[in-house]
Give the backbone structure.
Amino acid sequence: MTDPELAALADELHRALPGRDLTCDLSDALGHGESQDGGGALPPGFRPLHSRRPFAGLAVTASPQDTELGAVYAALDLAPAGSVLVIGGPATHAFWGERTTRAALGRGVRAAVLAGACRDVSAVHHLGFAVVCSGVTPLAGRRREGGAVQVPLAVGGVLVYPGDLVVGDDNGVVVVPARRAAEIVPALLRALPSALSPDRSTP
Amino acid sequence: MTDPELAALADELHRALPGRDLTCDLSDALGHGESQDGGGALPPGFRPLHSRRPFAGLAVTASPQDTELGAVYAALDLAPAGSVLVIGGPATHAFWGERTTRAALGRGVRAAVLAGACRDVSAVHHLGFAVVCSGVTPLAGRRREGGAVQVPLAVGGVLVYPGDLVVGDDNGVVVVPARRAAEIVPALLRALPSALSPDRSTP
Amino acid sequence: MTDPELAALADELHRALPGRDLTCDLSDALGHGESQDGGGALPPGFRPLHSRRPFAGLAVTASPQDTELGAVYAALDLAPAGSVLVIGGPATHAFWGERTTRAALGRGVRAAVLAGACRDVSAVHHLGFAVVCSGVTPLAGRRREGGAVQVPLAVGGVLVYPGDLVVGDDNGVVVVPARRAAEIVPALLRALPSALSPDRSTP
């Protein structure tokens, strides 16, 4: 599957998400977290900042150095429309807030998934941007250079590569490795009933 | 107190719960967690998946083997109307979702209390079922046999026996040992004022 | 700055909080948690019990002995109107509930910030009182004497002195040491635009 085909598949999935729990189906299709080669569901500590803001897009990754925000800004500078930012870093500090949200919305970025925390939650709520994070704190990282972008990243024990399909809803986040998306996503979309809450197989 | 009398008491308590914080009164009546012989309040990590869905019922327990869902289905097969499922298992995996919710509603089960996680939260919300759990994740346990039902279970450090009275509201969950329900619950119900938010003694 | 001047500054800040994320600006002004001499943002585990209830006021502190509520009642007995109670104690027990909320409202106390848990959440919600805590549980501390009031307190690793300015919103809580308030708060208030969600500098 070419990159534009994968992006088109992410777009189609993004439109199918509202009112469903498709991250659960994707987790089932991936094989219950057995994969040793990347992808899977992030653990329960990763929660949506606000509910009912599902998203699907291809990962742009940022690995901050210590508590420095440089890698986040660098990732924002190269993130294409429809992408999802995946950001490492410690849970003690906020790596996302109003300024980054406005920049992301300006570029058409769909969501931010953070190992760290978020802040400016009133502004993020008003702006309508999807954030999944490990917590909320007023304490921000520092505006310094450092860190790396578009590198493989371990987030909550799940390995994420740039270009992987990252999908989030009120259940959390699932990372579908790029090379497995063609096998999993079209089959899921074909099986979708039009109604909400289709009968699920597990649990 | 016979089993039918205890079930009738649970029903009466269930109807009295909305708009109050009766789990707090029950925790006080049990004696502030001092009991060494079962029961008490579950710790703060056990949270209602959705607010304003209080419940009271007699425990049917399921102790999954590892991450296998067999015990959950087995407990659903024998749970009577008005009961509350109490399910062990690790917090890393979802042991409850849309399928189990539909099965529980079909049997008249009132709630599920899980040491593990829940998923399919949009569907569970739409279906209106009460779930208390330790987290949310798309990653489900496996559909395999194994585990045990109607065994004593330690949930969050609290010992639960089948048939114990399990009560939940927005404050969390309290387990009232079956042999103490006759001493505690009728006195609580008699003391209830008709208004919301009666003056509380502690804290 | 005299105590009445500091209280007037807290009042002015309190009125400016709604719809903004000013705890984030205050955390930035304090210098990103570097201070070794008290104050700073509480870590992500401290969450508002209900959203959209921001507050600012001068700290009255209570350090419970073990799980005993005596220090909380003693602090309530001396807390002036416009103050914020800051209460230590273990996260396993509730040190705040309906009774303390009613007493606090009767004195004009603005909020309670707890290292421990809260309970009676339906009543606290109906009464409209601001609580920031580390969790919720029906299990209360005991109504016994003991503990200390108006002592320095470490809450979530942040040192709080009686009379410090304590500010909370949906992002969490920031403690501004009393001696730094005159340097930080008037400058923040002067810089406020009248609109919601001003452009933020970090992140």
Observations:
- Chain B has a mean pLDDT of 93.
